[in-house]
Amino acid sequence: MMIIMRSNATDKQIEDVVRTVQANGLRAHLSRGIERTVIGAIGDGRPVDKDQFMYLSGVDRIVPISRPFKLASREFSPPDSVFPIDGMKIGGDKIVIIAGPCSVESRQQIIETAHAVREAGAHALRGGAFKPRTSPYSFQGMGEDGLALLAEARQATGLPIVTELMSQEQLPLVLQVADVMQVGARNMQNYSLLHAIGSSQHPVLLKRGMSATMEELLMSAEYILSHDNQRVILCERGIRTFETATRNTTDINAIPVLKSLTHLPVILDPSHSIGNWEFVTAIARAGVAAGADGLIIEVHPNQAEALSDGGQSLKPERFAELVTQVRLIAEAVGRSVAPALPQLSQAAIS
Amino acid sequence: MMIIMRSNATDKQIEDVVRTVQANGLRAHLSRGIERTVIGAIGDGRPVDKDQFMYLSGVDRIVPISRPFKLASREFSPPDSVFPIDGMKIGGDKIVIIAGPCSVESRQQIIETAHAVREAGAHALRGGAFKPRTSPYSFQGMGEDGLALLAEARQATGLPIVTELMSQEQLPLVLQVADVMQVGARNMQNYSLLHAIGSSQHPVLLKRGMSATMEELLMSAEYILSHDNQRVILCERGIRTFETATRNTTDINAIPVLKSLTHLPVILDPSHSIGNWEFVTAIARAGVAAGADGLIIEVHPNQAEALSDGGQSLKPERFAELVTQVRLIAEAVGRSVAPALPQLSQAAIS
Amino acid sequence: MMIIMRSNATDKQIEDVVRTVQANGLRAHLSRGIERTVIGAIGDGRPVDKDQFMYLSGVDRIVPISRPFKLASREFSPPDSVFPIDGMKIGGDKIVIIAGPCSVESRQQIIETAHAVREAGAHALRGGAFKPRTSPYSFQGMGEDGLALLAEARQATGLPIVTELMSQEQLPLVLQVADVMQVGARNMQNYSLLHAIGSSQHPVLLKRGMSATMEELLMSAEYILSHDNQRVILCERGIRTFETATRNTTDINAIPVLKSLTHLPVILDPSHSIGNWEFVTAIARAGVAAGADGLIIEVHPNQAEALSDGGQSLKPERFAELVTQVRLIAEAVGRSVAPALPQLSQAAIS
Amino acid sequence: MMIIMRSNATDKQIEDVVRTVQANGLRAHLSRGIERTVIGAIGDGRPVDKDQFMYLSGVDRIVPISRPFKLASREFSPPDSVFPIDGMKIGGDKIVIIAGPCSVESRQQIIETAHAVREAGAHALRGGAFKPRTSPYSFQGMGEDGLALLAEARQATGLPIVTELMSQEQLPLVLQVADVMQVGARNMQNYSLLHAIGSSQHPVLLKRGMSATMEELLMSAEYILSHDNQRVILCERGIRTFETATRNTTDINAIPVLKSLTHLPVILDPSHSIGNWEFVTAIARAGVAAGADGLIIEVHPNQAEALSDGGQSLKPERFAELVTQVRLIAEAVGRSVAPALPQLSQAAIS
Predict the structure, then answer these.
(1) Residues A292, A236: Cα–Cα separation, whole Å
(2) How far is D227 from chain B, CA to nearest CA, in Å?
């Protein structure tokens, strides 16, 4: 941590800061410039709370030197984290595609979609049983019944299930069905939930909050990792900006920058990050071109009846086209999309 | 809801949209302009999910007409909501001041601060026992022990207690001590928590999320109100922008705009919204000048030792000066700060 | 400037950085922490371009220590700058109010408004002859004819004129009429214009760009000050955020923070910063409560016919009410609104 | 334009709005809902200023129906605009790459870079002679001497020149050298400059302002198009958000969305939009994968000495690698990078 003094700081003020630094078990290291003095507070690598120094007389600013995350950092663990989730392996050369409806709405809808996305080449099925909705008057998800339908869809197709968890109470139920538990953007800093998920030792897909910095996303991952739960997938899903032509702004920069900061796999959700089905395929291509380890895509067999986020869902045939295009991009960057699951026998489908 | 068709929409597409509108139990009303056709979908005032229409061929955009919140709206309930919380009455002419440390840190700290802010004119004591911190390595609050100290502080000073609730599990504990439960910015869209708080029938201070729109804040209030829990206080606490000179950007516009949109009381947290104690008093004055019904201020007896957010805390003597200045502003806008609590006997203090 | 090395930087890389620092005429000062090395580059206070160091192998980040502005800084010139503009004195205890229509539209409109705002207590008349409009199809201002009408309004009322300059070509014309030349938000970083204005030695009202940081605003002021043109007034006019309920977000924090960073006067434009006349008075009060040295307010005698920005203009009678309220706030913060100009004789008015 | 009345608007207020609509030569069309009345104002497609209606009593909001840009719109001119600039053809299937240093710094630097980027496959040379710099103390470009060096570089390599114009005064000079005149982000709404450039009938590369919406970018293009200057290239260069880990946030969504809104070519500047050379190639790939018609890349032979933006410049060999990677992506999306210029004879190079 560097403590930058005001240009008119007195010697007395500088001494007081030095003393406080030392009282915190840190070494103080002075640089006297023409205009200002800077005091380096050098420790043993453990995080120090900068707020303790901000109040001191004569202090202008505090600049942290160490990154606040450790376990999530590339420096802590240089190679890419790769881990299997059911049959699907995430974080390596093979790009993984998760697809399905925003919400589980009916038995027919989820089973039909599961078969359709499986056939198009998806490796996992997404679908929300518990839905965080801005309005209390919007459909809030099928809850426990939705989870049962997801279990049935897994049974029918063999696809691992990615589904959202909104609170600790739902954990026992969701754990029975989810192969990956999703933490939504609105809960990225719900620390009680992060602690619970960390303890569960279950794989997690952690979405970036809508105005979270990359560092904050990594700090939220750190909460989970600090419980020694290593299977955390980070997901860029668009951030909030002044632009109104799109639902969110896809922070494509986050893909390569996060990959450089952390060893964890990074995937992109182009459906939420642009919010309009017409452009989802273009953004999915961009994500893989930028280095994403996977994609999570909204697919709905009948958008006209979708109870949530219909406007950003792809029909199954468009999703199949997206997979085809993404395969070409993956190859262009020296990777490949993970192989599609083997075809089911006719008996299994019907 | 107005459905704006693309300029090249065909008659067939327009008819399809009209049919879908009618199939949703709404009346369709066409305006054919030179360039585009607009279809009004007219209902009985119940919210309609616009996503159902966004996918239809030929549709360009959907414009909602009704506001998505009802119970929170000024139109639903024109007069200002005024409600008592313990001795303190909030939402009327009298401006209420809540003050205290970011976190409860020790018996001495909280009792001493409680007396100091009471004496300076505060009407309630704030202090966090459960603290949402960006880093898992930062102090997370004293938890249950902190709640016990808050109870003691109330006992000693008579000040009602405002304290944060981070999850449903903490609800029974927090309910025993809190006169007002605070929902922090990071949990503004933690809908499980909002439902639980709504059911509790307990007063709530709901902070705006760091990138939430005013409409989203009101929708989160609507979650609580929909449980017929009427005692919701809204709190502006700064939003996230590109500016780096301050911790957040105080959205001072939100004060008069929220007051026009809703009947609920609106208060300002100048400590978090600017993040530097030197400027807290100026922003507190601005908030009251703009029409805020109250303030929530961080005060710490000894900033040098504050375990969280020290840099934005005022010392008690500066807080007293803030109250003096705010009183003058309140009078300048034809209001007044609620009267200070009567002095305690010496016996009570020691 | 502090150069923060990566945690895995080699000794060779550190030596190379030190050599480059020295080759730039700076002293290098090493702090070796457990995780990282930080190299202070200490100079004589002249700005150094940090880009020269960013590319070097092993460098993680550069942290500037000195502020990039000098002449504008409070440290360079501690007392408040106060300067007279025609009769009006700006930057001292007395708060100055500039008012008038967005655009000059007709002789009657501008003369009538000038008399109305003068009578209500304004100290200067604003009005645009050259208008930056988002659309080439919108009214672009009356140009030279508009300037002539402004000159006439000054003649009739004695009010100094504040009017916008959009390009260097307009400078000779605008100089003949303007007492203060306004640089609009869209031109805050039009450096050719800033150089020209600097050279003119004429007073300037410099508006903050819609997504400019405070530091960038001060750097733009520095362009003007570097021509030894000292009469620069800074103006907060709202910044662009994700919020859509208001035209812009008034950055009220900028008032006290700018006042601490610079000796230049800081005023607020509540009309643009909230964009809705209903709320302009509340935000004007907030600005003065936060420490603004003045206000610039849109007033239009007949909003129904306003050719630009009608929705945020006040009618003269509402403006008079604003002045009354602002006077009370000014007194509450120990200042006062500058005295109104003496009444004109009836002969002068007609 | 739809005029949405407040829920408590009176019949009288509704009638007044209708009368005003008609007085503006528009037809009024009423939709009475349960809660609110909406008045459609239907015209002949010419833009109408909505501000005239915002002030009227009882009006809640105005929703524009027509897009404010015409000549730039895809609806006005459905096929992609393709136009030749010197040898280079832009806007069609072939992707164009513009490369070179941020600033022209010396004869050797620009000639050497020109040869290097030509050999690596670039189709045009960028280089600034006039540089908009945040600080008046930073290098402001070589000016006229820099233009002469650019002319020499074109002579030597045959590469068309893209160079920035900061003000109308520079136009005659820049026209002599530039094949494409660049309007920088800070000047996107410098309307005097846009008018001058429109009149010049010269090709333009128009960069998006750092907080401009896509619609505003198109409105600025409209300024140029309204002078019947058709050769406008739009450039996404990153927008300003709260994220601090990168210089800007690349708005990758803007690529496909702009392509759907306009017929004009859309290119990406990955160097400015992420601001760190390490990630430029990843973002360049993403841009082409998302549908960009070209790229503009910063290349500097010796970053250590770069006088501006060194940290985001690629060395020539890394740029050559970028071109190779982008070629693969172009093919993966069914396009190709425009062919490299034929090799120069050795005589020509030396």
Answers:
(1) 10
(2) 24
H helix intervals, B79-159: 107-120, 144-157
Inter-chain touch D42–B35, beta carbons under 8 Å = no
Q: Could you tell me the pLDDT band of residue A8, with boundaries at 50, 70 and 90?
A: confident
Alpha helices, DSSP H only, in A96-251? Answer: 107-120, 144-157, 171-177, 191-200, 214-225
Q: Please state whether beta strands B94-100 and B124-126 pair in parallel, antiparallel, or not at all (unpaired).
A: parallel
Helix (H) or strand (E) holding D19: helix D11-23
CB atoms under 10 Å from CB of A47, counted, come to 17
| Residue C78 burial by Cβ neighbours in a 10 Å radius (0-12, 13-18, 19+) | exposed
Rounded distance between C-alpha atoms, residue A153 and residue A104, angstroms = 11
Return the structure tokens found at B326: 């705010």
Distance in Å from the first CA to the final CA of chain C: 63
Over the stretch C247-299, which tens digit does the pLDDT of each residue have? 999 999 999 999 999 999 999 999 999 998 899 999 999 999 999 999 999 99
DSSP class of B24: T
Report the candidate in C152, C173, C174, C170 with the shortest Cα–Cα distance to residue C162. C174
In this structure, the strands spanning C94-100 and A266-268 are unpaired
- Smallest CA-to-CA distance from D81 within D268, D204, D265 is with D265
Nearest to B283 among C243, C273, C290 (CB): C290
Rounded to an integer, what distance in angstroms lies between the CA atom of residue D54 and that of residue C330?
A: 31
- Beta-sheet strand order (sheet of D37-42): D27-32, D37-42, D2-5, D59-63
What is the Cα–Cα distance from B50 to A311, expressed in whole angstroms?
9
Which of D248, D255, D308, D336 lies closest to D127, judged by CA? D308
Pairing state between β A37-42 and B232-236 = unpaired
> Closest partner residue to B34 among D38, D45, D63, by Cβ?
D45
Confidence (pLDDT) at D93: 93
- For residue range A47-77, list pLDDT tens digits in order: 666 767 876 788 888 888 778 899 999 988 9
Q: What is the dihedral of CA C5, C10, C11, C16, to 10 degrees?
A: -60
The mean pLDDT of A240-250, rounded to a whole number, is 95
Q: What is the pLDDT of residue B63?
A: 83
Which of C345, C337, C346 lies closest to C95 in space, CA to CA? C337
Instruction: For residue B191, give the nearest of A46, A132, A308 by CB distance.
Output: A132
What is the spatial distance between Cα A140 and Cα C201, in angstroms, rounded to a whole number?
64
Structure tokens at C279: 């709320």
* Residue type present at position A125: L
- ipTM (interface predicted TM): 0.92
Only one residue has tokens 């306009």, namely D262
Residue bearing tokens 């410099």? C206
* 3-class DSSP state of B45: coil
Find all residues with CB under 8 Å of D336, minimum gap 6, and list them. Answer: D93, D94, D95, D327, D330
Per-position DSSP letters for B219-277, written without gaps between them: HHHHHHHTTT---EEEEE--B--S--SSSSB-BTTHHHHHHHHBSS-EEE-HHHHH--H
Q: If 0-12 CB within 10 Å is exposed, 13-18 middle and 19+ buried, where does residue B76 land?
A: middle
Residue D304 has pLDDT above 80, yes or no: no
Q: Count of B–C CB contacts within 8 Å? A: 137
CB atoms within 10 A of CB B338: 21
Mutate to test the interface with D, among B42, B65, B210, B244 (most CBs of D within 10 A): B65
Q: If you count residue pairs, one on A and one on C, with CB atoms under 8 Å apart, how many are there? A: 63
Contacting residues of C for A211, CB less than 8 Å apart? 242
Predicted confidence band of residue A46 (pLDDT cuts 50, 70, 90): low
Residue D82 has pLDDT above 90, yes or no: yes
Q: Which helix (H) or strand (E) holds C232?
A: strand C232-236
Distance from CA of A273 to the nearest CA of C (A): 15
